[in-house]
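Hi R.,

Here's the chain you asked about this morning:
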Amino acid sequence: MIDPVTLLAFIPAALALNATPGADMMFCLGQGMRSGPAAAWAASAGVALGGMIHVTLAGLGLGALIAAVPWAFNAVRWIGVAYLLVLAVQAVRGHSSAEIKAVLPALAFRSGLLVNLTNPKVILFVLAFVPQFVVPEAGSVLGQFMILGLVQAIGGFVINGLVGVYAGSLGRRMARGHRTLGWITGGIFAALAVRLAIWERA
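And here is the predicted structure, written out as tokens:
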């Protein structure tokens, strides 16, 4: 369905983009620092699933529709801002280590999924990047989107997860000062919310 040469060109490009620090990576870093490796991997899995949903919508043409309708696009953006701020407040309020780990990794997975789905930058990224490697004459356009999206999602899952695991090891060393750790994690989430709030489309 996808020409091997096209796929070989896509893989390094996708990995390079996955390795570029962004909102998803910083979110996984924050989860790992606050709640450890399991939360980091769960958050990364949620982000990866969100990416696959975006790719599916793009393949069906819905992503372009959302990107073309200003009020729908901005609604997604502000939902994302609000959710990140809620996460920031929860992190700053703080809980004991046992309470934090008790709600994970399920909560981290859900949070990663929602953070990715409510980030309109991902919509634009998918629409700008993936179609460059889709050849309509090669078969199902949706099928090509799905294969390319899966490659992107797997690479992102591994890279974001590893970043979160590294942050988790740092977090364990800071565990005695979990209140400070909560402020650091909350600051990361708040910064992501501000970044999304002030972002202007080109």
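One quick note: Residues 141-173 form the longest helix (33 residues).

Cheers,
M.
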